[in-house]
Amino acid sequence: MEEEREVTGMQQMKHEDKNFCCNRTEQKGLRRSLRTKGTAAEAVLWTSLKCCQIEGVRWRRQYGIGSYVLDFYCPKLQLAIELDGEPHFSPEGLERDQHRSEMLEQMKDIRVIRFENCLVFDYLDNVLETIREEIRKRKEELGFPPFCQQR
């Protein structure tokens, strides 16, 4: 039954692929609200991501992909960063996040990396190094030159 529901969901997403676009107009207010009322962890991480500070990569905040709004997204590398707080730690939240990541990977080849909010506060340098490593891996996977600056 669970597999059947998943296949049905995938069929629905493929059917709606034309609607699986970026920054849909009907989400504009939501995205704006999420940017202005973001979490403290998002604000801390954004200070390190904005202005192409990591590997010359440009990030966008609260970027819409289909019905999802990603915390941070790099369109050139199809790389998303999600910060997870308490609501994500329930069994339902974990399942929802996993499903969302799988859908983004399958539909748009978007790699999602996740961090708990507390890691951003307590181990920011480690979080940033992990992001750097993922950027390098993603550039290699997508065939970018080794020293390519993506903006």
Percent of residues in helices: 40-55%
Order of helices and strands: HHHEEEHEHH
Largest sheet: 4 strands, mixed
The CATH architecture assignment turns out to be 3-Layer(aba) Sandwich
Poorly predicted runs: 1-16
Rg, Cα atoms, Å: 16 Å
What structural class do you assign from the helix and strand content?
alpha+beta
Strand order of the largest sheet: 1-2-3-4
CATH class: Alpha Beta
Beta-strand percent range: 15-25%
What's the pLDDT, averaged over the residues?
80
Number of helices: 6
Describe the 3D structure.
A four-stranded mixed beta sheet has the order 1-2-3-4, with helices on both faces. It contains six helices and four strands, in the order αααβββαβαα. The chain has one domain: VSR Endonuclease (Endonuclease, Chain A). 50% of the residues lie in helices and 17% in strands. The radius of gyration is 16 Å and the shape is globular. It is of the alpha+beta class and 151 residues long. The protein has helices at residues 2-15, 28-36, 40-49, 91-108, 117-122, 124-142, and strands spanning 60-65, 68-74, 79-84, 111-116.
